[in-house]
Design brief:
With about 325 residues, the protein is of the alpha+beta class. The chain is built from 9 helices and 4 strands, in the order αβαβαβαβααααα. The relative contact order is 0.17.
Length: about 325
C-alpha cells in the first residue's frame, strides 16, 4: 500500500511569498549596508585616533630675521628633552609643499610665502609627556612655536564615532520594525486565504503548535532566501568597493573617497556581522509568523466559544 505524501498547508511559492521575499531582501540589504558602514566608520575613526594619539605637532610661524632651519632643530631637540617623547621629524620643504599642493597647486616656492613649518614628535602613548610644561617652555624659548597635542581632534573623532553608531543603530531598529510589520501583514494575508484550512485542521483536533510550525517553516524559508540575498549583495558591494580602492591607489577619485569614507574594507568582523544580521532577520521573521498564527488561532477559538464576539475581531 502506497501512502501519498502530505502536501504543505501553504504553497511553497506564490505571489505573496515572492513579494515578501523581495521586501525582506531589500531590508536585509539596507540593514547589512548600515552595519558595514558603521563598522567602516568606526574602524577609520579608531585608526585616526590611534595615529593622532601617537604624535604631536610643533608649528613654527615665520618671522622677520628668523632662521627657520635652526629654529626647527631647536624646537625638535627641546621637545625630545621631555620624558615620554620618542622621536622627532622636521618636515622639509618638499613635504610641506605636498601638504599645500591640493589648495595652492604645484611648484610652490616656500621662501616667497609665509608658510608655517612643522615638527612632528612621536610620543609614548602609555607614558605621554607633560604637554603643558612643554608648551610653556617652547613659548618661553621660541615665541613663534605653537604646540598642538591633537586632543581636541581626538575628542571630536570619538564623538563622531559614537554619533555614527547611534544613528546606525537607529536605522537598524527602523529596518527591523518595518520588516516585522511587513511579516505580520503577510502572515495575516496568508492566513486569510487559507483560513478555512486552518479552521478545519483546528476543528478536527490539530494542535495550535502544529499549525504554527507549518507557517514557521513557510516563512523561515522565505526569510532565509530573502535575507541571504540581501546580505550577499551587501557583502559583494563592499568587496567590489574594496577591490576598486586597492586597484586605484594614488588617483584623485580614490584619494577623495578615502578621505571622505576611509577604507572600504570592513574586515572579517564586518562580514561576520552581515551573517549575524541574516540569522537575526530569519529568526525575527519566524518568531513574528508564529506569534501572529497563534494569536489568530486564539481568535478562532474565541469566536467558536462565543459567536457574538466575532463583531469585535478582525475579519482575517
Amino acid at each position: 500500500m502506497q501512502v501519498r505524501p502530505t502536501a504543505p498547508i501553504l504553497p511553497p511559492s506564490n505571489i505573496q511569498g515572492n513579494a515578501l521575499m523581495v521586501v525582506i531582501a531589500i531590508m536585509s540589504f539596507l540593514a547589512c549596508l548600515t552595519l558595514g558602514g558603521v563598522s567602516m566608520v568606526r574602524a577609520t575613526a579608531s585608526s585616526w585616533e590611534s595615529q593622532i594619539s601617537r604624535e604631536i605637532t610643533i608649528q613654527i610661524k615665520p618671522d622677520d630675521g628668523l632662521d627657520m632651519n635652526a629654529t626647527l632643530a631647536k624646537a625638535r631637540d627641546l621637545a625630545l628633552s621631555f620624558v615620554g617623547t620618542k622621536d622627532g621629524t622636521i618636515m622639509d620643504d618638499s613635504a610641506t609643499a605636498r601638504l599645500l599642493e591640493p589648495w595652492l597647486g604645484s611648484g610652490l616656492d616656500l621662501k616667497e610665502l609665509p608658510v608655517p613649518r612643522l615638527v612632528i614628535i612621536t610620543i609614548d602613548e602609555s607614558n605621554p609627556p607633560d604637554f603643558q610644561a612643554m608648551r610653556d617652555r617652547l613659548h618661553a624659548e621660541i615665541p613663534q612655536a605653537f604646540l598642538d597635542d591633537h586632543r581636541t581632534w581626538v575628542d571630536r573623532l570619538v564623538s563622531m564615532a559614537k554619533t555614527t553608531v547611534m544613528i546606525g543603530g537607529g536605522i537598524l531598529i527602523l529596518v527591523f520594525t518595518a520588516m516585522i510589520l511587513t511579516v505580520v501583514f503577510a502572515t495575516r494575508g496568508a492566513l486569510s486565504s487559507n483560513r478555512h484550512i486552518v479552521e478545519v485542521l483546528h476543528f478536527v483536533g490539530a494542535e495550535s503548535g502544529f499549525v504554527a510550525r507549518e507557517f514557521q517553516k513557510h516563512f523561515l524559508m522565505i526569510s532565509l532566501k530573502g535575507s541571504a540575498a540581501g546580505g550577499v549583495l551587501a557583502a559583494l558591494l563592499f568587496a567590489i568597493a574594496s577591490f576598486w580602492q586597492s586597484r586605484s591607489l594614488a588617483t584623485p577619485e580614490s584619494d577623495q573617497a578615502t578621505a571622505l569614507f576611509g577604507s572600504f574594507t570592513i574586515g572579517m568582523g564586518g562580514y561576520l556581522g552581515i551573517i549575524a544580521t541574516i540569522v537575526i532577520i530569519a529568526l525575527l521573521t519566524t518568531l513574528t509568523a508564529r506569534f501572529t498564527v497563534m494569536r489568530t488561532i486564539d481568535e478562532i477559538d474565541l469566536v467558536r466559544s462565543d459567536p457574538a464576539r466575532s463583531d469585535g475581531l478582525p475579519s482575517s
